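TL;DR need structure tokens for one chain.
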Amino acid sequence: KNVINWVLAACIVIMFYCFVTNLTAVGEVVDTVISVVSPFIFGFILAYILRPCCNGIASLLYKIKFMKRFPGLINAIAVTGSFLLALSVVGLLCLAVIPELIESIVSLLQSLPGTIQSVITKVQAFAETHPQWQGFINEAIKRAEIFTQQETTIWIAQAIDVLTSSAIGVADVITTVFIGVIAAVYMLADKHRLKI
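>> reply
TL;DR here they are.
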């Protein structure tokens, strides 16, 4: 029995050592599993959130006498109605938030040139009142222009990289949401069997 315990302990130590030495591979496996399972987790959460709405619509439809003969139709209408309600809530939130966000960005971009011009005017006024700083300020302005030209090229390359990765991320989110909605529809349609 002691031999079995020692062999078991040695196997655990070896497995722990392999786990620690291959931590990046383990991380990749965990990332893959999470990316595969996340749409279904999203679907389950969405179905859980929409279940009370779906049940409410179904109970209203069961009060209509001729509808009692069509429980499948009642379930389909309830699921569709709950998703339409959720979609309208999300749409209204977007209609409230997106214009404000755009307005803030536009006002920031519109005020930026005026702010820059104000700073330049103040620097020039300072240079006129303090002639001993004139050479330093002119040199600083030249270096700032050169720096801006060089950094603009770098910034554009970085912006393209960020936009590309953002587009890929948005596509991934859209795919996850789409698969999650499909999973939620199936879960809500079979809510009596799944007990959610």
